[in-house]
């Protein structure tokens, strides 16, 4: 199995299991002010993440454009603060299973929208896997009583969950998982404080009791710090559409942990649903298909020699091509982060097994691929790749 696929899958799975387990902690915070709890959770998580960045770890923030900062603000507002608020609002008139079922459909939405944003067709295996995951999530949770308002807020929670994955993709490249997590946590803490002051006035924050403090610490240190870094590391390796498949593990983890605090049971429906989620994740993520399912690597129609073409990286001497960063909020400032290649490396040792022919060496005289350099043609157009 491809090592990158394996690591990415394990990281995404761990993140979603931690989030699912956090639903148990949420049940212990029912009497704590919502905005104040979000402020403490994300603020503490940001402080815990900063030492992990190392010296100069925040430097990439200075290179972000206004549009990228806007994307980060929307990501925090939608995928973090907004998601939790939508769940809370939905559960006022609906049983918890209702928003859970809607959120379980996130893999299906992401499996469609991410390929379309990248200008390609959805992958059938991912789509089939997402549908099985959604069915498994429904089986685990069932369907509860609700009204129109509960359904509307559940749909909002679904949209927020999709945004949490999709909006992060373009800013994940320049920031990396740790800095991205720290930045959105800081922004989410500030947004929560504003919401708290506006809605609750002076009562938006209070000192938590022992149980509430333990729950908030768990959510900040384990679910947010470890969970967010694992989640974005998983997306970085296997892509948002495959990583989101693992969100089906959230209701499974919630079902496993609920009996520990007496808020639910684990029976035959939960076992069947868990099996369906596992099957859907295995099918859609590619863990059953080995190396051919390497994440986010596409076969180009012009590829006849086994050469992989990454469309988002410009070849030497060619203009930048539109990629993931050129979304609704505009293009990423990637030019400043790219190192130009002045000329094609050549060794001219005329040894066999060179994978790419050299420009100034006679046929059959290609050099052995060296440890510190990759031979490439200066004129890719001559090789059918221009």
TrEMBL record:
Pfam families for the chain: EamA (PF00892)
InterPro entries given for it?
Diverse_Substrate_Transporter, EamA_dom, EmrE-like
Domain of life according to the entry: Bacteria
Q: Which residues cross the membrane?
A: 40-57, 69-90, 96-118, 125-143, 149-172, 179-198, 213-232, 244-262, 268-288
The membrane-topology field of this record reads:
Multi-pass membrane protein
Question: Which cell locations does it reside in?
Answer: Cell membrane
Task: List keywords of the entry alphabetically.
Answer: Cell membrane, Membrane, Transmembrane, Transmembrane helix
What residues does the EamA domain cover?
A: 7-139, 168-283
Q: Which family does it belong to?
A: Belongs to the EamA transporter family.
Annotated protein name in UniProt: EamA domain-containing protein
């Amino acid at each position: 199995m491809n090592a990158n696929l394996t690591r990415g899958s394990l990281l995404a799975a761990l993140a979603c299991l931690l989030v699912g387990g956090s639903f148990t902690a949420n049940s212990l915070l029912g009497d704590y002010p919502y905005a104040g709890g979000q402020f403490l959770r994300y603020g503490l998580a940001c402080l815990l993440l900063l030492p992990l960045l190392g010296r100069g770890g925040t430097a990439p923030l200075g290179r972000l454009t206004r549009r990228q900062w806007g994307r980060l603000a929307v990501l925090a507002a939608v995928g973090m603060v907004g998601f939790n608020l939508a769940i809370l609002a939905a559960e006022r008139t609906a049983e918890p299973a209702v928003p859970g079922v809607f959120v379980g459909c996130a893999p299906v939405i992401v499996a469609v929208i991410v390929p379309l944003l990248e200008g390609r067709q959805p992958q059938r295996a991912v789509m089939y896997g997402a549908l099985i995951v959604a069915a498994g999530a429904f089986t685990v949770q069932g369907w509860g009583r609700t009204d129109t308002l509960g359904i509307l807020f559940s749909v909002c929670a679904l949209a927020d969950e999709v945004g949490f994955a999709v909006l992060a993709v373009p800013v994940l490249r320049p920031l990396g998982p740790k800095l991205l997590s720290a930045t959105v946590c800081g922004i989410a803490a500030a947004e929560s404080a504003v919401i708290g002051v506006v809605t609750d006035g002076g009562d938006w924050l209070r000192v938590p009791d022992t149980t509430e403090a333990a729950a908030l610490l768990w959510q900040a240190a384990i679910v947010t710090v470890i969970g967010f870094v694992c989640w974005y590391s998983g997306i970085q390796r296997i892509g948002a559409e495959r990583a989101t498949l693992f969100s089906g593990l959230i209701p499974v983890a919630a079902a496993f942990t609920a009996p520990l605090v007496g808020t639910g049971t684990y029976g035959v429906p939960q076992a069947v649903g868990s099996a369906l989620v596992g099957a859907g994740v295995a099918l859609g993520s590619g863990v059953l298909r080995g190396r051919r399912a390497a994440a986010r690597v596409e076969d180009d129609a012009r590829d006849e020699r086994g050469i992989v073409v990454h469309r988002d990286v410009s070849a030497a001497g060619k203009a930048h091509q539109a990629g993931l960063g050129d979304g609704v909020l505009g293009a990423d400032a990637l030019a400043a982060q790219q190192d130009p290649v002045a000329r094609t490396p050549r060794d001219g040792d005329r040894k066999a097994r060179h994978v790419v022919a050299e420009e100034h060496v006679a046929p059959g005289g290609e050099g052995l691929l060296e440890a510190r350099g990759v031979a490439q043609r200066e004129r890719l157009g001559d090789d059918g790749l221009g």
